[in-house]
Amino acid sequence: MNKHYSMVGHRIGRLVVIEELPSVKIGDTRASRVRVRCDCGTVKDIWRATIRNGNTRSCGCLRAERYRAQNPDGLNERELAARRQRRRQDRLKSSGTDPAAAKLARMKW
Ligand SMILES: [Zn+2]
Prior knowledge:
Bound molecules: zinc ion
Number of strands: 6
Strand content: 15-25%
Number of helices: 4
Largest sheet: 4 strands, antiparallel
Radius of gyration: 25 Å
Distance between the termini: 85 Å
Strand order of the largest sheet: 1-2-5-6
């Protein structure tokens, strides 16, 4: 009754499988999950399939770390989006797409 080999102890990137969880029924198929512990200490349940396709390598902390490196101010996604939006509007204004600004620019000449 040992249909699949145990993944306990298996390491994928930062994650180590610490427990196999009972499979769950999703529609007509069954999917199994494993409990993993990340090097950062986070314990998380993930789909066995996601491990096997190699897309999952951390609990999300890798992405968070990369994100922090690019974003030292610690802004969240929404703040960053708002900042990008403001920059876009500023660019629009200074590039003269705004009729009033374009008029002003022409007056200078
Ligand atoms: Zn982690």
